[in-house]
Every structure is written in structure tokens, then in C-alpha cells.
Amino acid sequence: MTIGEFSELTGISCSALRYYEDKGLIQVERDAGNRRIYSDKDVEWVKFLQRLKDTGMSLKDMKRYSDLRYEGDSTISERLEILQKHEIYVEEQRKLWEEYSENLKSKIQWYKKQL
């Protein structure tokens, strides 16, 4: 599929896909005319990259994870370690956001009482 079709399918802009490719996060096949050819396998990979980004994984860690993924199954333990470290980060951030939410709720209640 073309980059436009792939963009529509994944919900990720063409420019973001080109950026991911430029940074080495995705490796895309090319046709004889040097046009990108995305596969169904690429769909899940790019969606996963987007989730990593959305949860705050650094580009450096995403790049390392991607490099390992493209190296194959011999890197599974290293990839697992990266994801486990990121899970700790995500959990810490979730706890912070929960605290922020509780603080907002408290402030909202205070304002409601003032009215």
C-alpha cells in the first residue's frame, strides 16, 4: 500500500511516517520507482510505535527498540527490558496524573462550595 493509504489506515500523517522512517524507526520496502510499499505487518508496528510515543517513550529508546526488533528474535530479552523500564515510567506518570486529578477535583469542590 502507498504512504497515503497507510496514513489513512493508521491515522498517522504522511509527514510523521516519513519522520519515523528518517529516524530509522520503520524500515519500508521500496518499489522499482523508489516509492514506499507498506505491508499489513507495518500497520501494527507503526501503531505500536505511536503508543510508545503517546506514553512518553523517548525517541532514543524508541530507536533502540526498533533497531533490536529489526535484528530479530535474538534481541527479545533486550526488548523486554526496554518495555519493562518504560512500564515503570508509565506507572509513575499515571500516579502523578492521578494526584493532579485529585487536586483538581478538590479545587472544583471548593469552588462549588463558595457558590
From TrEMBL:
Keywords: DNA-binding. It comes from Clostridium folliculivorans. This is MerR family transcriptional regulator. Gene3D superfamilies: 1.10.1660.10. InterPro entries: DNA-bd_dom_put_sf, MerR-type_HTH_dom, MerR_fam. SMART domains: HTH_MERR. The keyword DNA-binding applies. Residues 1-68 form the HTH merR-type domain. GO terms for molecular function: DNA binding; DNA-binding transcription factor activity. Pfam families: MerR_1. Transmembrane segments: none annotated. CDD domains: HTH_YyaN.
